[in-house]
Amino acid sequence: MIDLDELKVKIEELTKDYKGFKFDYIDTSTIVVEPWTRLKCQYGCPNYGKTLVCPPYTPKAEEFVGMVNSYKTAILFEISLASIEDDIGGISKIALDIENCCAHFGYYKAFGMGGGPCMVCKSKGEECNLKESDLDECKYPTEARPSGEACGVDIHKTIENKDMTFWELMKRITIISVMVWFYWNSFYIN
């Protein structure tokens, strides 16, 4: 296993072509998990219950706290949508690429988190084949990754715990969206 400084170099090499890509390690104790975040999905998101990465199919906050507690270190990353050409599905791909990089260098527990609803099929120019009653037929289950918010992460508080405010973040983003999870994703590694 390489140390975190060496891993940082590997991740920087992997992500060098993404405009505005920044990341930092954070202590998992700074990740805030609250049950209310899933309510935002359940009441207001048209994707609720329609993909494997959306509630109610994602871990509940109470379960997710257990996952977070099984790690010491996470990666919090920021990326401009302009760098992935407005392809939200690209967020999951980047998270999966980083996950695989971490695993390759000895961090076998690595698990990437995507952003927002599943967009894997759309990023491939395909229609999602899932229906609410047939979620086990996902064409790309190994590529789909839930967002932190779908599992209960309060990304606003987590960002504040990193000594940033949500509004400071928004000033730095090339493309502004109310859905901050398109830009910041938690990624558990150690």
What does this structure look like?
With 190 residues, this protein is an alpha+beta fold. The chain contains 7 helices and 4 strands. It has helices at residues 4-14, 36-42, 61-69, 89-104, 120-123, 155-161, 166-172, and strands spanning 22-27, 73-78, 111-112, 184-188. Strands 1-2-4-3 form a 4-stranded antiparallel β-sheet. Helix 1 (4-14) crosses helix 4. The N and C termini lie close together (11 Å). The relative contact order is 0.23.
What does this entry show, briefly?
The chain is α+β, with helices and mostly antiparallel strands and 190 residues long. The chain contains 7 helices and 4 strands; from the N terminus they run H-E-H-H-E-H-E-H-H-H-E. It has a 4-stranded antiparallel sheet.
Category from helices, strands and their pairing? alpha+beta
The proportion of strand residues reads 5-15%
**Strand line-up in the sheet with most strands:** 1-2-4-3
Shape descriptor reads globular
Number of helices: 7
Distance between the termini: 11 Å
- The counted number of beta strands is 4
Helicity, as a percent range: 25-40%
* SSE run: HEHHEHEHHHE
Instruction: List segments where confidence is low: pLDDT < 50 over at least 5 consecutive residues.
Output: 171-186
Q: Could you report the average pLDDT, rounded to the nearest whole number?
A: 78
Most strands sheet: 4 strands, antiparallel
**Gyration radius, rounded:** 16 Å
